[in-house]
Amino acid sequence: MRMRKFVRCKGWFAWLGTLMLSVMLLQGECIALPDLVGRSRADYLNDRHTLWEAHFHPMVSSSLSAIAYRQYNYETTLGYRSSLARWLHKHLALVYLNAGMTQPCKLRPSTIRANSGLLSRPTLRYQARDVEEALNELKSSTCPVLREFECHPVYEQRRLLDVEYELRPTAEFVRQVVAANRRQKDGKLTLSSP
Fold this sequence. Notes:
Elements: H1 2-17, E1 20-22, E2 29-31, E3 35-38, H2 41-46, E4 52-55, H3 58-66, H4 74-78, H5 83-95, E5 105-107, H6 109-116, H7 124-140, E6 146-156, E7 159-169, H8 171-192
Antiparallel strand pairs: 1-2, 3-4, 5-7, 6-7
Helix pairs in contact: 5-7
């Protein structure tokens, strides 16, 4: 059992070592883990808790040190059945910075399709149905993100052009977003102070 886990981890780390991060910089793309080393048997016998040693790319390390990334409840996200619901939760946590009980967030399937690539159905009607299923999952999960949502179809004559969703978050999600904003602000302040 332990050997199978070790082999699985070894393959995962080998894949992770070749992972490319697309970073919008002058350099273009960078490797996420430039230094990934498997420990030797002698090193393992000295320290049985460490099998691999990895060093992140300097840009990733500086982002982690500066808390320049957006934090959200990843454990809740893993509980969703659909990948679209997972993406919507992450998108709301990353983009909806001014979350409040009285400030709804507006989304359209066309925006979701362009940003996520998860809506592959041929017609807008089916795409809107997929989005509504994912929103219902966000609403009815064990730790709900949405209190309610409204659907506003946009028609031109009798043809459906787009659908606009007005999302209203729960108080718990608003607390999580406010706490993430505070952690990010505090991290920047501690780094800028001498």
